[in-house]
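pinned: reference chain
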Amino acid sequence: MRNILSFEYNEAIPHLQVIADIVSHKIILSTIEVAKTAQQIAFENKLPISSTYKKIRMLYQMDMLCIDKVNIDEDGKKVLFYRSKIKSFEFYLKRDGAILQFERNDHISQVRNTHT
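pinned: its C-alpha cells
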C-alpha cells in the first residue's frame, strides 16, 4: 500500500501552486532519489542560486522537503542536503471540490525536520 498524504480544496490549491512553479518543480524532481545541496540543485538545473534558496525555504516550510543530512565543510560551515518528501502526486478536480494527493518518498532519512 502506498503512503499517501491528501489535501482537500483549501489546502490543495496552495500546495499545487507551489509545485506548479518551475523552480520548485525542478527542486522536487532533482531531490527525489538523492539528497543534494542548494548549490548542487541550482547548478544541475541551471537555476539562480538566490531563487533556489528561496524556493527551498518555502518547500521546507510547507513540509515538501526535508534536511536529509548535515555535513561540516573544511571551513567549519554547515552544509545541508535536501531531499524531497514527495515521490509523486495526483490532483483531482471534481464538481464538489479538489483533492491533491502526495505519495510520500520512502527514501528520506530520519533527520529531524525542524523549521529554521
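why pinned: The beta strands are 4-8, 65-72, 78-84, 86-94, 97-104. Residues 3 and 104 are 6 Å apart (CA to CA).
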